[in-house]
23S rRNA (uracil(1939)-C(5))-methyltransferase RlmD
Amino acid sequence: MSRSNSVSPTPFEAHITDLGHDGRGVARIDGKTVFVSGALLGEQVMARLRKRHRHFDEAEVVEVIVPSPHRVEPRCRHFAHCSGCSLQHLDAESQIAAKQRVLAENFERIGKVTPQLWLPPLSGAPWGYRRKGRLSVRNVAKKGRVLVGFREEQNPRFVAEIQQCEVMHPALGPKVGLLADLLSAMDAVDTIPQIEFAAGDDLMALVFRHMQPLSERDQAALIAFGQQHGLAIYLQPGGNSSVHPLWPENPRLAFRIASGDAAIEDVELEFQPLDFVQVNADMNQRMMARTLELLDPQPTDRVLDLFCGLGNFTLPIARRVAEVVGVEGEHGLVERAAQNAARNGIDNARFHVANLFEDQRAADWARQPWDKVLLDPPRAGADKVLEYLPHKQTRRIVYVSCHPASLARDAGILVNQHGFTLKSAGVMDMFPHTAHVESIALFER
């Protein structure tokens, strides 16, 4: 392959020696790493260079010469150009194995730790699972149509035109193309950049971001679409706080978390359409069961739940312990968590607003002794919290992670600085057919 800086259109042959953390195949060409979209571990492919970088190049598959035995036919017809999924061409068992390998490599390379026990992977329904997300919208005059979808896999600046989505909640997945038809006939077709969707157990909501006020005609069209398809319609003229329902007048979004114990009541959480909720409802239930198993809450326990959000973990834990305190940085989520506690008749859960990426050691909740701690941070992890927590009274920590690198880093801190043992860890397939790795780990001392 040419070593010039220009990108040659001439295909080249490559042997794929690894699967990258983003789901792309990895090859070495003339001593340089090349990430090959659409290629799988062990395959021999013809590839075409797309972009050159100083330390690596990017390419795409033109032809699979020797396929992997784990290659399958993607179910979605938009798979080749939509970035919503990257692993539909890999069988489900191999997807899980790849994610477990990523987690293990991060523990070893970053945290210098290894769990005493690998937990069996958690997985659920692989299709129709996605209950929350954001669709991009673009009116393309040259094509004479409106595009609604996720970003293109090969060029994230562009919107991938899709008619249906196989991983999206069935209340919306088959109807993505109908959204494009709806917007094409609206006056505001050029000033609606995105549509967010969020589903509760009984209702799917669509939030239309609009840069200019909507005409009465457009509002009527949105209402009619919602009525026809049983969808709640929200408008967002500005920031998150501007979101308000258009139809019906008072929609209710909520989901239940089953206790799994006949002696313990289920929990129901209400939420707003832009609130953070776990994308996969089935996996949220499975994750909850595993979290409770690892945390082992006892009637006398005092538990601290950091990055608690709406109380997804806090309230089920509260049913089982003496006291639980949830801490979250977003005021609206904390407010709704407290409301959810009251709505469920839970009086032993308290909530605090605090930016957990700033030093909070002077806060009352941070100075108190806690028997057990639950961590569920965003991608950045919990290293700032671990500068002053946990105290010596804490004997067990369960860490739910959406990013294996930050979990591995924080695991090293807990083991090497706080004297914990990494007892067990494993992956949870929250996002089937993507390279996203959700995981859970138990620490004890």
Q: What stands out?
A: The mean pLDDT is 95. The chain has three domains: 12-71, 96-125+279-444, 132-199+204-251.
